[in-house]
Amino acid sequence: MAAPTTKGRKRVAENRKARHDFELLDFYEAGIELKGTEIKSVRNGKVQLKDSYISIRNGQALVKGMHISPYEFGNRFNHEEDRDRRLLLHKNEILKLDQQVRLKGMTLVPVSLYLTHGLCKLEIAVARGKNLHDKRETAKNRDAEREIRKAMKERY
């Protein structure tokens, strides 16, 4: 089954847990440095973003914990599944993200992975962790909106 497309994008993977556990504030688009057969596995949708995060070390942004399964038709030069992958961002973007993470106590989380014009892009977000009561309130609001839509649909 093909992933939904918007604006010429084919979504490969989405981190739903990030939207549940964090309040997403600022969004950025970053390229990923992939090696060997990784892009073929990405095109087949063999990617998991769950429990992945982004750290900044030595002026480079790295995505850690992103799992890309080995390419099934690959040879002995297949890639390592859980290696750290470098994100391709401008230097000033990296410095801005690093400053936000250090000063404001935020974190960087990958939100979705998609293909656009043959290139693999990762949407990342500056996020603040939610407390338990915030998660409950979000679920309550979502349920209320669902009930309102249902009532409006039945009425008209």
Describe the protein's architecture and organization.
The chain has four helices and ten strands, in the order ββαβαβββββαββα. With 156 residues, the protein is α+β, with helices and mostly antiparallel strands. The chain has a single domain (8-130), classed as Small Protein B, Chain: A (Beta Barrel). The strands form two sheets. The chain has an eight-stranded antiparallel β-sheet with strand order 1-2-9-10-3-8-6-5.
Tell me the structural class: alpha+beta
pLDDT < 50 runs, ≥5 residues: none
Mean of residue pLDDT values: 88
Number of domains: 1
- How is the main sheet built? 8 strands, antiparallel
CATH topology: Small Protein B, Chain: A
Using only C-alpha atoms, the radius of gyration works out to: 18 Å
Number of strands: 10
Helix content: 25-40%
Shape: globular
Fourth-tier CATH superfamily name: Small protein B
User: So what's the CATH class?
Assistant: Mainly Beta
Distance between the termini: 33 Å
